[in-house]
């Protein structure tokens, strides 16, 4: 009887140990394997479409504000400070003069490039803005080589805004582009409704070519497809998302495109797929 009792205890102990090992193994896999779950943190992925202000009424209101008396170092109603960076490039000296704000404004997560000044490294970055490390560019911006202006424009909370000009070292205009708070002015927007309120697709356009981040939304405003164009070509990882009615963001499928445009002999392939609960159902082993 005693031996049977000990055997039962051993079996229960073994069962607990096995279950614990399985849980630990699953937890380890989920933390080390980015494909183990299709659920994406809302902090990393916006689930609702942005509010675009490309309409004529918004433009008129902005022009009225800009026509008001300009105060020193105040741009778009925001108090700014001036910054300056000097770099020696061979036998030339490059200067960058810019304005910035310490306002911790929430940035539109759909904008591809957010320009900010890294105060520790004393350089301007365009990715991964961290308010604890730097400040957003806001107001006029100019870049010089020696005493010749090679680029000038205006920033609005880290995004390019208005007309931007680029020159060569002989002051000849080489490029002229227009932006609306980070969006290329020629970007194409389609809607689900006739009132232009429910955004269907946002296609970035520069010089008649698709250039920048592309977004397709479900009718409720949740992101359905996110990808990037360069020179009219799809590049990098394009991700499709299940419609979860904005409760969370769950990946549906990832398609890998060329990393650089015009790459020869590259064929896009499905990298991974998940079901509606975020469980992995397919993964291309060759992509690991």
TrEMBL record:
<feature type="signal peptide">
    <location>
        <begin position="1"/>
        <end position="20"/>
    </location>
</feature>
<keyword id="KW-0732">Signal</keyword>
<protein>
    <recommendedName>
        <fullName>MORN repeat protein</fullName>
    </recommendedName>
</protein>
